[in-house]
Amino acid sequence: MNKTFKIYAVIFIVVMIILALFEVNKAETTDWRKNFDINQKSPFGLYVFNHEVNALFKNKIKKINQTPYDYYQSEKKPHNILVIEEEIDTESWGKILDQVSEGSDAMLIVSEMPKEVSDSIGYYDSQISFEDQNVLKLTDKTYQNDFIHLDKFPSGRGFTFIKPGVEVLGKTVEKNNSDQANFIKIKFGKGNIYVHCEPLFLSNYYLLKRGNVKYAQDVFSYLDDRETVWFVENDAKVSQFFLRFILSNPALKYAWWVLLGGLVLFIFFNAKRKQRIVPIIEPLKNTSVDFVKSIGNLYLQEGDFHDMMAKKAQYFLNKIRMDLLIDTQNLDEEFAKKLHLKTGKPIEMIDQAIKLIKKAQDPYAQVMKEDLAKMNKLLDEII
């Protein structure tokens, strides 16, 4: 085991210990969202109601996870309809009202109803109170001792308008406000519609309190003793994902994510350590100098000093033209003077160089090795 691996192992263990300490000391939080989910055990879920609903309706309850529009495509005999805080489309509301008009009864326990639907039924609902607490009571004297005290997040909703002939079955009682209707009965065709605008009384938090179940029983007692169809969003369809148990447990969930994180880090650093060695590519060498030396040695071996002097002279004159901008057509006294002024070299040196250049340009001149060496030295010294 190398040193790098040991370091990462120590870091991983330290992180695990820190996360474990955080998990042990973490205060458990409560989800107070009003989800009204039949699978949720949070305070405002419907888990308890979902498990007690069969006893409440004498095993005559039928949970439907279709929309009312789809369910009522075929003809149904009169029955009870139950809706608890569900988002239902306009077409489905129309189907529910059609069923009621043909003899069914509907228990609608919703905090807000679409305006066009409430218009059809004959009432308006809205936010009527912002108090932190209130009491739900029924108007029937038979149930006067059955009430629920809402001490956590009451909706404060009620009915601001009720058409004549609507029967008020329940009300919201508050300390600093007048009583407001929250539970009504409307005759609709051959059937009845019951609307309760405070669904909190069916939540886990309130049903588990002593005596509160009686209020729920009283509310549902207005329905006839027959089959009740309850429209639910999802009829306890438990996820089949193989990690469901792990992800549903906070401690196991954290451990799972830490395990995945450690595995990713291990793969990353391990792959980095064992990746294929990148070959070193040598840069191309500059062989220009070697080429020039080879050409020079070739000329020396051939002994053609005259040709070498001519090429040197030609290169020198071309450099004079390009760098010093001096005309090299006539290598006379005027040329020597200009070259002297621009290079600052002695006029005697320039005259000797001109003499050797002319000798290199003369194809009939006799050139010795010493002449080539002397001219090469002079020209290199001038520029």
List the helices and strands and how they pair.
Blueprint: H1 3-25, H2 47-56, E1 61-64, H3 68-71, E2 80-84, H4 90-101, E3 105-109, H5 115-121, E4 123-127, E5 134-138, E6 147-150, E7 157-162, E8 167-173, E9 180-188, E10 191-196, H6 204-207, H7 212-220, E11 228-231, H8 244-248, H9 250-273, H10 288-302, H11 305-324, H12 333-343, H13 347-361, H14 369-382
Helix pairs in contact: 1-9, 11-14, 12-13, 13-14
Outline of this structure?
The chain has helices at residues 3-25, 47-56, 68-71, 90-101, 115-121, 204-207, 212-220, 244-248, 250-273, 288-302, 305-324, 333-343, 347-361, 369-382; strands spanning 61-64, 80-84, 105-109, 123-127, 134-138, 147-150, 157-162, 167-173, 180-188, 191-196, 228-231. It has 383 residues and is α/β, with parallel strands linked by helices. The chain is rod-shaped and about 145 Å long.
The succession of helices and strands, N to C, reads HHEHEHEHEEEEEEEHHEHHHHHHH
Tell me, briefly, the overall form: rod-shaped
Largest sheet: 9 strands, mixed
Q: SS-based structural class? A: alpha/beta
Q: Work out the radius of gyration.
A: 51 Å
Distance between the termini: 67 Å
Secondary structure tally, helices: 14
Mean pLDDT: 85
Low-confidence stretches: 235-240
Query: Roughly what fraction of the amino acids lie in strands?
Result: 15-25%
Q: How many strand units?
A: 11
Main-sheet strand order equals 1-11-2-3-10-9-8-5-6
Approximate helicity band: 40-55%
